[in-house]
Design goal:
- The chain contains 11 helices and 17 strands.
- By secondary structure, it is α/β, with parallel strands linked by helices.
- Helix 6 packs parallel to helix 7 and helix 8 crosses helix 9.
- The protein starts with about 25 loop residues before the first strand and ends in a 7-residue tail after the last helix.
């Protein structure tokens, strides 16, 4: 099957150019699958959403483009849902999916799509989410293309793309090499996983790294031969006569297991509802240089979210200031990403300082930020806090200010 993308199969996002259902070309099942696979194999396509057999949108260059084609019938659309589930089962992306999967209301999975490239066969890893009635009027499909290992970006690649400048890349590399703990924040699809993957490429090869995730999104880079990945396992009931899988390993369980695996660093792909407290405990016991990500609108809000998740796991009876002080002690830097004018940028890098006793809020010192007026990154400081400088002096580490700020401070 030809999986090359047809650039003419989508309209521009402007409302005046949106095709009506009658204007869309009704293709055969194989024709629609060929076009969708072609888009999923395209480097500049990140998502495909299908709201109905007639409503297909392709996200390219951070904009959703309506497709000029549609499924010929609801039956073909149902057949495509079956194809997605079957692909996930073959790829191991639905480890416990059952024949009665349609009764769940929503299903998630991952599959791998192979396609020819300039240097041989390439692979696109696709994350699938299907929302089903009664949650919605008809099935809704979301396909997210994950960047493959062969195309993982480095910090220098992100500099060339304008996501950060050279000073910021040097700062982040310095943080990784000196075992500073980093929290990456941002919304959905802003590049948090891409940045963490780039930071993994800065870790020296002699270290032991354990990666903990709910979804297999991070790849072990070639520079880390002594790295392993752990994935959460969700229990499911027995349906359709198939064997039940009742074992359950949460993100927090895996972080605790990682401590027994003698890690130099622990990388947690994303903290959602649990796992924050075990990670903070791990960072408090000497596993410096760890990295995680959180959905949050700023670095400060990301740290506050970690504090609130820890309080939720502990339960009542613990003062917020106690947990807040502990979290602020172990989190050194926050990095926030966003999309500005259709481009992925590192919006802010800041040093996490302490929990303000007066306002019960996390305080941070901004180091670099994105200025939307000048469309460039500007520095907010010329040195770290006195506390962090003291920590580096105690470790015998010289701070290369001339590489991480344009004007080195006078010391």
């Amino acid at each position: 099957m030809d999986v090359r993308p047809d650039v003419n199969a989508c309209s521009t996002p402007e409302a005046s150019s949106l095709p009506t259902p009658s204007e869309k070309e009704r293709l055969s099942f194989d024709g629609v699958v060929s076009l969708l696979d072609g888009f999923l194999c395209s480097e500049n396509v990140t998502e495909i959403v299908i709201n109905s057999p007639e409503a297909i949108f392709v996200k390219r260059d951070n904009l959703y483009h309506p497709a000029k084609f549609a499924f010929s019938s609801p039956g073909d659309y149902q057949q495509y849902l079956d194809l997605l589930v079957e692909r996930c089962k073959r790829s191991g992306g639905f480890p416990y999916v059952h024949s009665e999967w349609r009764i769940y209301g929503a299903v998630d999975g991952v599959f791998t799509l192979s396609y020819p490239g300039e240097k041989g066969e390439n692979q696109a890893r696709v994350r699938v989410h299907i929302a089903l009635p009664p949650l919605c009027d008809c099935p809704k499909v979301t396909l997210c293309r994950k960047r493959s290992r062969q195309h993982a970006l480095t910090l220098q690649d992100m500099v060339k793309q304008g996501a950060m400048n050279e000073y910021m890349a040097n700062l982040l590399e310095f943080c990784v090499l000196t075992h500073r703990n980093i929290v990456v924040s941002g919304g959905t699809g802003v590049g948090k996983t891409t940045l963490i993957q780039a930071l993994l490429g800065c870790i020296p090869p002699g270290e032991r790294v354990v990666i903990v995730e709910e979804e297999p999104e991070l790849d072990i880079p070639p520079n880390l031969p002594n790295a392993v990945s752990l994935l959460t396992v969700t229990g499911t009931p027995s349906l359709g006569g198939e064997q039940a899988h009742t074992s359950f390993f949460s993100l927090g369980d895996l972080v605790r297991q990682a401590l027994y695996m003698r890690p130099t660093r622990i990388i947690v792909g994303e903290i959602r509802t649990e796992g924050a407290l075990p990670l903070v405990d791990a960072l408090s016991t000497g596993h410096d240089g760890s990295i995680t990500s959180v959905h949050a609108p700023s670095p400060v809000r990301a740290v506050e979210r970690i504090i609130n998740l820890c309080l939720r796991e502990i339960g009542a009876g613990v003062d917020k200031s106690v947990i807040g002080d502990e979290v602020c002690r172990v989190v050194d830097f926050g990095v926030h990403l966003s999309i500005q004018d259709g481009c992925h940028v590192v919006e802010q890098i800041c040093e996490i300082e302490y929990l303000s006793a007066a306002f019960n809020r996390v305080t941070a010192q901004p180091l670099w930020r994105w200025d939307p007026t000048t469309r460039a990154h500007v520095h907010e400081a010329l040195r770290f806090s006195d506390y962090l400088e003291l920590r580096f002096r105690e470790l015998g580490v010289e701070i290369p200010y001339h590489k991480i700020f344009p004007v080195p401070p006078k010391i």
